Amino acid sequence: MIGLISFGSAHRRTINCATSLDFLRSGMDLILRNARLPDAARGDPLVDIGIEGGRIVAIEPKLRADRRAERDLGGALTSAGLIDCHIHLDKAFVFDRTAPEPGRLADSVRRTSKVKHGFTTADVHARASRVLARAVAQGTMRMRTQLELDPIVEFRTFEGVKQAIADFSSMIDVEICVFPEEGLTNNPGTEELLAAALDRGVRVIGGAPGSDTDHAGQLERIFALAKRYDCDIDLHIDFGNEPKDMDLDIVCRLCDRDRMGGRVTVAHVTKLSTFPLAQQRAIARRIGDAGITLTVLPATDAFLSGRDQTANVRRGVVDGNMLIEEGANATLGTNNVVNAFTPFGDCSLLRMANFYAHIVQVSSDEQIRACWDMLTARSARMLNLTDYGIAVGNPADIVVFDATDPVQAIREIRQPLCAFKRGRQTLEWSRPKLLRDENHSAT
């Protein structure tokens, strides 16, 4: 009998003891032995994971099979690949091209817009490839990238990112969300570009109403495009310093009207963090009732928030743990890498979760496990994935970390040791080896 994945109240994945039929045992390509699964309780036995044809065919202790390759994981944390649910491949690694910050005001959109004129397909391809290589090296195996479309870049960025995605398709699955960073109702020609991308098969449409002269008008058009093309929605909204004029109210209403629950994501929403806690919780419940996911982007939001302050500078990072407590779905993403919005980044989602936990001041094991879920099962829920997780029948997309459990992995920012995409090894890291001077004893 084959054990299946089940979801608890917090959508944490648990795996029952799984056995496989004899005809599966004889044909396995690879067995990963002595794996410690993310939801294993203390004292649970280690398990072996049998892989055939790129899929998981068995999960059980001391798996017996003939004609196979093996790898002993030695009790290391073994998980489905991490998911970066919000990143910008097209404008990564352009910080050195942008003008210096004008004092305390980052002015990131304008500074980036000026360098977009020089983007070529080859340039975007090269920079996106750098990001994907770093992400794969940090244990990420699925991704949703935001991609700007407007008359400045036309389809140059789209083609460059598509090429990079194709180049790395054996290591990471990447979904594109096209959106109008510099406005829609006030930017002629942009809607036609978005529709053309949807005609080419893109199935996520985004928005940035804060850059539009007509916030509500842009959101209405985005929801109309989503309805016409049957796509999901992923919005950049409510980046600001004061608890007022929330576009989130419009998004919730449109989501209810068009019955889009489970298919709408909002990102940033830094205004939410400026409300009193009781109101934050009420808004979180409204988000949950509408079936909307909120993606927290700690690096960018912390770097850009509070630029109007010089003392007691606000953090501007939404407490995703609080949203989860109130019944909403929350995820964590990288957002920007080495550009005017975030001049830093190594594409490590564990580092991002650790940074986030510092900012929102969560520390218990239960809270840190919720951070892990924001990088894994909750992001899978946001992307509506039906084949994610360590379970019989799913793709063998597996990453092994130098840790015993998710809490240690995030607390100590433990690196991956190896990874397998559809059963083929795609990554190898070595544990550091300290070279002692034998002539001197350690103190």
Q: CATH-wise, what's the superfamily of the largest domain?
A: Metal-dependent hydrolases
Low-confidence stretches: 1-26
What is the CATH first-level class name of the largest domain?
Alpha Beta
Radius of gyration, rounded? 22 Å
Please tell me about this protein's structure.
- The protein has 443 residues and is of the alpha/beta class.
- The protein has two domains: 5-75 and 390-428, Roll (Urease, subunit C, domain 1); 82-382, Metal-dependent hydrolases (TIM Barrel, Alpha-Beta Barrel), CATH 3.20.20.
- 31% of the residues lie in helices and 21% in strands.
- The protein has 14 helices and 18 strands.
- The strands form five sheets. It has a five-stranded parallel sheet with strand order 11-12-13-14-15. Strands 5-4-3-6 form a four-stranded mixed sheet, with no helix packed on it.
- Helix 3 (121-137) runs parallel beside helix 4 (156-167), helix 6 runs parallel beside helix 7 and helix 11 crosses helix 12 (365-375).
- Residues 1-26 have low confidence and may be disordered.
